[in-house]
Automatic annotation (TrEMBL):
Family under the similarity heading: Belongs to the NADH dehydrogenase family.
InterPro entries linked: FAD/NAD-bd_sf (IPR036188), FAD/NAD-binding_dom (IPR023753), NADH-Q_oxidoreductase (IPR051169)
SUPFAM superfamilies the UniProt entry points to: FAD/NAD(P)-binding domain
Named cofactor requirement(s): FAD
Provenance organism: Alicyclobacillus mali
Domain of life: Bacteria
Alphabetized UniProt keyword annotations: FAD, Flavoprotein, Oxidoreductase
Chain ranges of the FAD/NAD(P)-binding domain: 4-313
Protein name: NAD(P)/FAD-dependent oxidoreductase
Keyword Lipid biosynthesis annotated: no
Keyword Oxidoreductase: yes
Length: 393
């Protein structure tokens, strides 16, 4: 019998799989890697906060029942007419499909950006970025050329800001440890608008900007990146900014295979879904997380965040359990639990409803949400094991 197949073990896919697993409903979970990545914490990997392996959680450790199957494979295509998923390990048929393949960095056709700038959208990318910065520090030591101590991040959204916050803390320490002159270090954050962090309140943006500036980050505001060449971003104003490290965090898009499958997508390959998270006009295919374009009545589409993906995954998983018991599905309702942006390991800004928090208080909230997530994934054992590693006890 054709069963439930879930594509992607990120925040959305994993939440749906765990819900089914708890109720003993059979499913097949297909993921590129044998682990779940804590993607919302990748800036910590780039800043060497902890061992990179602690940002991955083995899928084999999460699913033990005979009713759950984990397939480590690359999904290459979805054939809707045949109800088949093509992978590098063969074709897998489905009765119900859950698409939760996340997103990757979008460069919007900007010349040279994909080739010459790093991105921060997978554990591997975060580790490559970290190693590159270490190599640049070494090159500076060998050549004395200050360009190797120049670091530019383009994009003042959550990803770019959390990365810059992490580096503003780690890089001066690392340079000092290597005996390099910290005053030659230059960190620049390029953003197209007058204020960074568009998803938080104006007051918190100002706090975040002041904190980054205080720690030596140059905020290059109201400047768009027009392209990149080896070792330089070219701005719309014509300025050329040279740096040994270029990072692009200017936006994300869902995988092209969704459009190629014939699903109803927008200009970022996100699939239009209805109130039950089903792809519009495509029965038996559900889409969640960064791959989905969900618009509540009179609202704007939900943003691509881990929080949205996780809630969609839980909801869809619960609906599939209901359906297995012959009960009708419930419509998805999103509950905004607020947003916390870390600016390194010691400072953050948080917006929970109308409440604001800054500094260590914001980080306590972030730690709370990390703990809650770990507890939900694997219970107290996973929570304690991982938290000990992160606390380096
Ligand atoms: C540095 C950074 C910080 C962030 N901070 C926050 C934050 O503080 N709060 C927040 O809510 N959100 C944050 N986000 C956004 C959040 O990480 C994403 O919105 C979230 O991961 C989306 O979940 P998802 O389940 O849709 O996809 P993902 O978590 O990306 O999971 C997709 C899964 O599918 C797999 N996959 C993809 N393509 C294939 C394929 N072809 N074949 C097989 N497997 C495949 C991937 O390997 C992955 O396991 C941050 C993102 C970044 C990069």
């Amino acid at each position: 019998m054709r069963g439930i197949v879930i594509l992607g073990a990120g925040y959305g896919g994993l939440a749906a799989a765990l819900e089914l697993d708890r109720h003993g409903i059979p499913f097949t979970l297909i993921n590129r890697e044998p682990y779940h990545t804590f993607k919302t914490l990748l800036h910590e990997v780039a800043g060497a906060r902890h061992d990179p392996h602690t940002y991955a959680l083995s899928l084999a450790d999460l699913f033990h029942r005979e009713t759950s199957e984990v397939v480590v494979a690359e999904v290459n295509a979805v054939r809707l007419s045949d109800k088949l998923v093509e992978t590098n390990r063969g074709a897998i048929s489905y009765g119900t499909l859950v698409v939760a393949l996340g997103s990757r960095t979008a460069t919007f056709g900007l010349s040279g950006v994909a080739e010459h700038a790093f991105r921060l959208d997978s554990l591997r990318a975060a580790m490559e970025l970290h190693h590159h910065v270490e190599r640049e520090l070494e090159r500076y030591r060998q050549t004395g050329d200050p360009v190797h101590l120049n670091v530019l991040v383009a994009g003042g959204g959550l990803t770019g800001v959390e990365l810059m916050g992490e580096w503003a803390d780690w890089l001066p320490k690392r340079a000092r440890d290597l005996g390099l002159p910290v005053h030659d270090l230059h960190l620049g954050l390029i953003h197209a608008h007058a204020e960074i962090l568009p998803d938080v309140d104006h007051q918190l943006r100002a706090v975040a900007q002041a904190k980054l500036s205080e720690r030596g980050v140059e905020l290059i505001l109201n400047e768009r990146v027009a392209g990149a060449e080896p070792g330089a971003f070219i701005l719309g104003s014509g300025r050329k900014l040279e740096a040994g490290t270029l990072v692009w965090t200017g936006g994300v898009e869902a995988p092209a295979l969704l459009q190629e499958a014939g699903l109803p997508v927008d200009n970022r390959n996100r699939v239009d879904v209805d109130e039950f998270l089903m792809a519009k006009g495509v029965p038996d295919v559900y889409v969640i997380g960064d791959c989905a374009r969900f618009t509540a009545a009179h609202g704007t589409p939900l943003p691509p965040t881990g929080q949205v993906a996780e809630q969609m995954g839980h909801h869809l998983g619960a609906n599939l359990v209901r359906s297995a018991h012959g009960r009708p599905p419930l419509p998805f309702v999103y509950h905004d639990h607020g947003m916390v942006a870390s600016l390194g390991p010691r400072y953050g800004v948080a917006e929970i409803g109308t409440h604001h928090a800054t500094g260590a208080t914001a980080l306590v909230l972030k730690d709370g949400s990390k703990m809650k997530y770990l507890m939900h994934l694997g219970g107290p054992v996973t929570l304690l094991k991982r938290y000990r590693q992160w606390l380096e006890i």
